[in-house]
Amino acid sequence: MKKVITGNQAVAYGVILSRVDLVSAYPITPQTTIVEELSELIASGRLKTKFLKVESEHSAMAALIGASTGGVRCFTATSSHGLAYMHEMLHWASGARLPIVMVNVNRALGPPWNIWSDQSDSLSQRDTGWVQLYCENNQEVLDTILQAYRIAESVKLPVMVVLDAFVLSHTSEAVEIPTMEEVDKFLPPYCPEYSIDTQEPMAFSVIATPEHFFEFRYKIQKAMEQVPGVAKKVDDEFRSMFGRGYGAIERYGEEGAEVLLMTSGTVTSTSRIVIQKLVQKGYSVAGIKIKRFRPFPSEEIYEAIRGAKKLAIIDRNLSAGVGGIFCQELRAALYPKETKPQIFGFISGLGGRDITPNLIEEAVQYTFEHSQPEEEILWLGLKR
Amino acid sequence: MISISLGDMEWNKTGAWRTQRPFYENKTPPCNVACPAGNDIVGFIQKITQDDFEGAWHLIKEENPFPGICGRVCFHPCESKCNRGNFDEPIAIHALERFVADSAASLPKKIEKIPKEREEKIAIIGSGPAGMSCAYHLAKLHYEVTVFESLPSAGGVLRMGIPAYRLPKDVLDGEISYIEALGVEIRPDISIGEKIKIEELKDYQAIFIATGAHRSRGLNIPGEKRGTFGGLDLLKRINRDGKVKIGERVAIIGGGNTAIDVARSVIRLGKKATILYRRSKEEMPAFEDEIVEALEEGVKIRYLVNPIRIQQKESLKRLECLRMELGEKDESGRRGPVPVPNSNFFIDTDTAIVAVGEEIETSFLPRGIGKREGIVLTQIDGRTDVKGIFAGGDLASNQRTVAHAIGSGKKAALAIDCYLKGKDTEEAIRQILIGDGPSISIFRHLHPEERPMNPHVVTFEELNMDYFEPSKRRRESKGLVKARIKGFGEVTSTFTESIALEEAERCFSCGTCNECENCYIFCPDASILKRDEILAHQVDYDFCKGCGICFIECPRRAISLEEEAR
Amino acid sequence: MKKTEIPLSENLGHGHLACAGCGAAVGMRMTLKALGEKTVMVFPASCWSIIPGFWPYSSFRMTAVHAGFVTGGATASGVRAALDIRGDHEVLVAVWAGDGGTFDIGLQSLSGAAERNEDFIYICNDNEGYMNTGTQQSSATPWLAWTTTTPVQRPKENPKKDIMAIMADHRIPYAATATIAYPEDFFRKIEKAKRIRGTRFIHLLSPCPPGWKIPSELSIKISRLAVRSRVFPLYEIENGRSYTLQEESHAVPIKEYLKLQGRFSHLTEQEIERIQERVDDEWRHLLRKARC
Q: Would B447 be classed as within a structural domain?
């Protein structure tokens, strides 16, 4: 059934279809309509999901950690400062190997205070052991949530599904909404290996000394290393059931392009149009959409950039002192490889400034015009 | 791999952390030390709290054959030492002992004669508390015992000297016949020295002389011989005949228990009794309770009065008296009476009785028996200067109490047993002293490994008062005076079961675990193990960290703490 | 209740790493006996992150969920929600948090849960400081006490936060104070709490030998003196309004309590007097609340 819904509404549908048992969330712009939507559905009795109101984001994640340990499927959503507040608990969720799925609406961190689209919030959590999946449109948001539960419950790591503030969260698009029966075939009920059972008492998340801690962390890395394989399997299955698939990355445009433009989130949608236009103008350019940020799809990217001489990557985020985070990860991923195209790291759109087609075109042209970037960080659209 | 626990911590023996270790160790309660008869008082009171009255009775009988008697007539020095006295009021130990005896008396019992296993025969002269106690313990040691009693019935001062309203005859008879049932032979109406000379008792390998002190001491004043008779004699006659010929007004000279007993007996015979005592109330040696009861019953006491001459005036006796005042403390520790010059006055009375003390009869004693200051000389164990002859009770001591007599009989039994087996008595006694002594526990002599008890005497400061609430001492109910003085029926009643339990619950149980479970509850490491058997707590040394909480929170210092050996 | 009625199951076990004489170990042992095996206990970071032992062992013999320091109230809310979703309404959810995790860093989470009247029993094990990290002050540290962050030259400046008043003002159905020297009282309160639905709060005072600078054997005695000196009265509050004060017939001056503890050994006579005044004032205040 196709419906015209906002990104946040798509999230709500994703939650419903995933038969989430418990949602616990704290409102923050621009996530609020997710929570509002779910509250209404639950209050009206149409959704059996339990909603646990809490008094902060940190408590929301803590509550879900408690509930997930109790063996139920959990969900939360947040953004920006809420996510940052939760930071301690994000580590806890992955350390405890709990398959929690969270939607983060990308929003800038202040000060200055800013409620608009910016990837710095989710990316600043990149070390917390969560899988991170970025979405380009509302359909992808809904679909990614369904896939996220499969991935999370398989590898026993929490998964963050990310969408842009306002551009997706509050913008309506046409979304094909699968039926519950269809999703049930795709996503079975949650059956944890270990959960609270007073008949078999055990203590959870106990202290481990240097003697043992190392191995726990090793296992988390191993679980992360399983994600590419698991995610592909899940995506392929999804594709065969629903006709839609996303991959860890998507390469679009012609083969053998000289320059590849790499983007994530809604910037990708704009980039597709810009690249089409530039190709018509004669530029040898194609695009790569990076969907999965963590674990970084090094192999898939390496495969996709064959033959390209230059990579232009647009980061809508900043790690002060080093630059764009996608760019940083890209550099690290390509370093061991033999063929290393030149990387042009662009930063644009922080705090919700529009990344216009003109700016993207500017970035591509710059890439063509220069053999190497003149600066470490190429600020796109900065007012000087 | 999730950080969930896969096992417990029982492998981690935290006992290795200890620098000090607690251990259960029963210690000596002050009441046990004070009891001249060597009763295990805390022991029998604990049994009462466990509803095991028969067990309590057997426990007392291990040391003392006369709980029913002691519970009535003992001067209970245990109660003066009771640690509870520092908190509110001491435990009514005598009343509890009496309760136990009376409960047991009502039980059907089959008393088995104890088989004789020893060749030797022992003769005991005198069937008073000392003699019968010695006979009892010797019988239990499997000896053949014969008790010679000069009077027609056994009991000595218990029968002749203590009136029935304090010690009913049936109680006395019951406890004496128990001893006879064990196999002790009592031969009444045989006065050693008259019928048989002591030197003729050749069939006996040892002799215990416990003839007591029955001769009334005189005042040594003019007119005494014709004008008075002895208090003990009066009591003897009342006991034997049920009545005695006395005048309407009776004056009793003296201040001890005998004087009081005489006075109260006189009241019961329908006459008036006035006690004349030469010191003041504080110095009166009679038991406090007795004095109070005597006054209730109408006995008059005149203090600081001393007769110096008795004249016959027609049918009356005229006592010429001097007023006294108190001077310096004398050798008894009490302030001495000093006559006030020219304070002579007269008291007229119909009968005058002298009850100023008793003396021992020595004419029948064999040669060689040492004597001094009115008693026969003995060693600590009752040995006299003559080999094979032992003495005890009032004959050999100035203590002159039933409890001391019972204790001395027990000690002499032990001494005789050691003598006949060629063992060192003093060493044997040293092993079984209760606390520092002088009382002994014959149970410990017979079963040295059982019921270990550290001789350290628990003081009040060592107890933990946080666990006790003030509670009044229960009192035995007394009959109304009018009813009491109609005859010689018992004045006080035994505790009921519920009152006895209430009073027994007040006992701190000094030094002896009574399973209050504080140690179990407060141990941070669950290292106090309870067992199904009673009074069998143990420390789990695998895990005990030696914090010492159990030591402090034990209300009764039944746990000791020592440095951990390294 | 006769002491022999205390349940025999040792749900804490031994071999655990608590200091000798640890008041909290006594408290935890009693608590777990009282709560029973059908309990999930959430324990935010505190001494109890260490005491039950290191992975793969735990001396807890019932289900325990270790949680972030801040999160006692929130994690327990989640556990309760999960159990209810699974249809498991019999299992009790409890929280065992320290004073840090209750009065300070955990206050928000607890307050949120209490406002929602979450269905769990929350036990604050109050040893009056951050003892796990080496005796730093918390807002539960008493006025003028020494801690490593309130050294003798400048002991604790502010009075102890009144957590019971805070919890009462959340109108939770049941709040009570308790301490380890009064086991029957503590068991009675837990039993009572078990029969109530909603947020139930027990403020349990547990002496800490290293933190209070007391010999290990005096933990029980000192907790009893805390009650007798009225610095920690035993009382219950129902529905935030109805106070039941327990009579203490053995009242002692505060000096008796303070003199046994090294953390108060620097106090002058005047300071002790002022403490006594404050204690008396708080007591009168409590009496007034009880009478309303």
A: no
Non-local (6+) Cβ contacts of B52 within 8 A are none
Nearest-angstrom CA–CA distance, A263 and A136: 10
Chains with ≥3 CB–CB distances under 8 Å to C: A, B
The number of domains in chain B is 4
B9 touches chain A (CB under 8 A): no
Same domain, A238 and A340: no
Measured in angstroms, the CA of B470 and the nearest CA of chain C are apart by 11
Residue of B nearest to A97 (CA): B2
ipTM score for this prediction: 0.94
Query: What string of H, E and C letters represents the secondary structure of A111-163?
Result: CCCCCCCCCHHHHCCCCCCCEEEECCCHHHHHHHHHHHHHHHHHHCCCEEEEE
What CA–CA distance (Å, rounded) separates B208 from B134? 8
Among B304, B319, B354, where does a domain finish? B354
Q: Give a yes or no: residue B267 inside a domain.
A: yes
> The domain containing residue B420 runs over which residues?
121-214+360-431
pLDDT for A311-352, tens place per residue? 999 999 999 999 999 999 999 999 999 888 999 999 999 999
Give 3-state DSSP helix, strand, coil % of chain B, rounded to 5.
35, 20, 45
In a mutagenesis test of the C interface, which of A26, A56, A59, A74 is the best target, namely the one with the most C β-carbons within 10 Å? A59
Q: Catalogue all structural domains in chain C, each as residue range(s) with its CATH number.
A: 3-291 (3.40.50.970)
CATH number, residue A351: 3.40.50.920
Please report residues of B whose CB lies closer than 8 A to that of C13: 8-10, 526
CATH number, domain containing residue B140: 3.50.50.60
pLDDT in single tens digits along all 292 residues of chain C: 355 678 888 999 889 999 999 999 999 999 999 999 999 999 999 999 999 999 999 999 999 999 999 999 999 999 999 999 999 999 999 999 999 999 999 999 999 999 999 999 999 999 999 999 999 999 999 999 999 999 988 899 999 999 999 999 999 999 999 999 999 999 999 999 999 999 999 999 999 999 999 999 999 999 999 999 999 999 999 999 999 999 888 899 999 999 999 999 999 999 999 999 999 999 999 999 988 7
- From B307, B297, B237, B301, select the one nearest B271 (Cα to Cα): B297
Compute the distance between CA of residue B501 and CA of residue B51 in angstroms, rounded to an integer: 8
- Write the pLDDT tens digit of every residue in A128-180: 999 999 999 999 999 999 999 999 999 999 999 999 999 999 999 999 999 99
Residue of B nearest to C11 (CA): B526
Q: What is the mean pLDDT of chain B?
A: 93
| CB-CB under 8 Å, A58 with C70 | yes
Cβ-defined contact of C16 to B525 (cutoff 8 Å) = yes
> Among residues B354, B375, B410, which one ends one of the domains?
B354
pTM value is: 0.90
- Asked whether the beta carbons of residue C25 and residue B525 sit closer than 8 angstroms, the reply is yes
B528 lies within 8 A of chain C by CB: no
Q: Which of C60, C75, C82 sits opposite A62 (nearest CB)?
A: C75
Inter-chain contact C220–B552, Cβ cutoff 8 Å? yes
State residue A332's pLDDT score: 96
* Nearest-angstrom CA–CA distance, B539 and B549: 12
- Residue B488 within a domain: yes
Handedness of CA C64, C69, C73, C75 (dihedral sign): negative
A66 and A95 fall within a common domain:
yes
Domain termination site, one of A225, A242, A259: A242
- Contacting residues of A for C91, CB less than 8 Å apart: 198
* A200 shares its domain with A86: yes
- Nearest CB partner across the interface for C21, out of B518, B527, B549: B549
* Residue A126 lies in domain: 2-242
Closest C-alpha among B533, B543, B538 to residue B520? B538
Q: How many CB atoms lie within 10 A of CB C107?
A: 19
- A222 interface with B at CB cutoff 8 Å: no
The minimum CA-CA distance between B9 and chain A, rounded to whole Å, is 12
